[in-house]
Amino acid sequence: MPHRTQQQRRNGTGVQTVVQHRPRRAHEPEKVAAAIRGALDSGVPALLQKLISSYHPMDIALAMRDLNREQREAVFELLSPAASGIVLEEVDDDVTVELAEATEEGELAEIIDTMPPDVGADVMNLLDQEQVHRILEHIPDEESDEIEDLARYAPDTAGGIMTSEVIFAPMDLTARDVISHIRTRQIPPESLLYIYVVDDERRLRGAIDMADLVLARPDQPLPDFMTADVISVTADTDQEQAAKIVDQYDLSALPVVDDTGRLVGQVTVDDIIDAIQEEHTEDLARMAGTSPRDVLSASSMQVAALRLPWLAICFGGTLVSAMVIKSFTELLTAFVQLAAFIPVIAATSGNAGLQSAAIMVRSLSLGHQQQAKVGRVVMRQLGAALVMATIVGVVAGIAGHLIMGAPQMGLVVAIGMFFAVTWGTTMGAVVPILFDRVGIDPAVASGPLVSTINDVVSLLVYLSLGSVLLRTWVP
Questions:
Q1: Do 353 and 460 lie in a common domain?
Q2: Distance (Å, rounded) from C-alpha 151 to C-alpha 434?
């Protein structure tokens, strides 16, 4: 019964430097970094080695963010291949590249060979192709082929986050056969979630939960207790969609097949968690008008470069707002009190749009609107907009009357605010849906874009109302 695993290499002698018989406690990255800097400053290599061996590789990976390049390289040189693999997996991408460039290719190959194939492929995708080819020459053919196969998939797809370490068995085996196989091999825990049953062409025919396998009669054939209707995805399925499927069906792992139905790997729950975090970070960044790289970047210039394009769009929008206000100079000269509520109208419209857009983007992300009719969704948002607009409009009208001392002014403010909230809420709901329908990330619509549009339109309507109504009522 075939099974591919890297566990034997991960359990090599190098890992003993980070294993203890008592439970470890988590360390604060800042304190770990400070301790490492102190050991480096002491100039005593044995002290640094002893300190590093006392920390879990994850603690070291998190502390790398607070060390400079020279310090990171000094620490990385002292780690065992297994610990180095964990650090390379967990640090930011730019640090991974930096450490890889500072490591001799033979040593780097040994480190990558200790990693699960999917993680090794992720690291390889960050490196220069010439360097990748040289590294693969140091890795056994079977493992290097596996890494190359996984590296072919886009990083944001099921193929890009899956592992090829799966247990699969032909249909003519029994429960005893599978259990005997598991007992005689060192298999990673994440591969023991499901046993996949395949035919002679390795096409997926069923899945068996580990608990069902243990409880089955030893001589019971696998087809008798397998689940035949298996939920699976193809390798090119978007990772966000894969995460939704795992959540929807409460799966611990999701099998991945090719276009012919052949089993090629599985996406485990830890990979799904990483994918969800990545997608959530991406949504938040785009809602703020920046890039996910903004979160991880240590360069002020890079952060500025990521944010400036959206700020430029917002700046252009405010210039349009300024032009709108300028076109009503005569009105504002005659009724200067109207200018007092310009920022109130614009801010309220923008905030209403952000509220609606944030809820809609999250609903789309979770798939809640997948089956709902767009018209019904928009009508629900419009109903909420009318209720909020009425309440806020009445309050704004009363405030306008009291502040400006004229009921006509208060009425203009009330109507303008009613429209601003209604328009802002509706736009916040509609634009993400439209973006989603045309294949654009709806999170892009929920930040500066919606706010800018709402500001311009709400000011135009507010001042137009003032021009029409006040010139009609006031001689």
A1: yes
A2: 33
314 & 459 share domain? yes
Q: How many domains does the chain have?
A: 3
**Cβ-contact 147, 136 below 8 angstroms:** yes
**Residues 270 and 313 placed together within one structural domain of the fold:** no
In a domain, 162, yes or no: no
Is pTM beyond 0.70? Reply is no
Other C-beta atoms lying within 10 Å of the C-beta of residue 201: 8
**Rounded (10°) CA dihedral 170, 173, 174, 178:** -60
DSSP calls for 352-367: HHHHHHHHHHHHHHHT
| DSSP secondary structure string for all residues of 173-184 | -BHHHHHHHHHT
The rounded Cα 161 to chain-centroid distance in angstroms is: 13
CA dihedral sign of residues 240, 243, 249, 253: positive
Rounded to whole angstroms, how far apart are CA atoms 109 and 296?
Answer: 26
- How would DSSP label each residue in 130-152? HHHHHHHTTS-HHHHHHHHHHHT
Same domain, 334 and 220: no
Query: Measuring CA to CA, how many Å separate 469 from each of 188, 329, 413?
Result: 74, 16, 11
Is the separation of the CB atoms in 239 and 279 below 8 Å? yes
Residue 233 lies in a domain: yes
Phi, psi of 262 (to 5 degrees): -75, 135
Angstrom distance (rounded) from CA 442 to CA 367: 13
Token duo for residue 158: 């099921």
Tens-level pLDDT at each residue, the chain (475 residues): 544 444 444 443 333 333 344 445 668 889 999 999 999 999 888 899 999 999 999 999 999 988 999 999 999 999 999 999 999 988 988 899 999 999 998 999 999 988 888 888 888 888 888 888 888 888 888 788 888 888 888 888 999 889 888 899 999 999 999 999 888 887 777 778 899 999 999 999 999 999 999 999 999 999 999 999 899 999 999 888 898 898 888 888 999 999 999 999 999 888 888 887 777 777 666 666 666 565 555 567 777 776 777 778 778 888 988 999 999 998 888 888 889 899 999 889 988 888 888 778 777 766 655 555 566 777 788 888 899 999 999 999 999 888 888 888 889 999 999 999 999 988 888 888 888 887 777 776 566 777 788 889 999 999 998 888 877 765 5
Where residue 51 falls (left for φ over 0; alpha for ψ -120 to 50; beta otherwise) is alpha
Q: CB under 8 Å to 460, separation ≥6 — which residues?
A: 324
Rounded CA-CA distance 100/126 in Å is: 10
Backbone Cα Rg of the chain: 30
User: Please, which residues bridge with residue 105 across strands?
Assistant: none
- CA–CA separation, 459 and 419 (whole Å): 10
C-beta of residue 228 within 8 angstroms of C-beta of residue 196: no
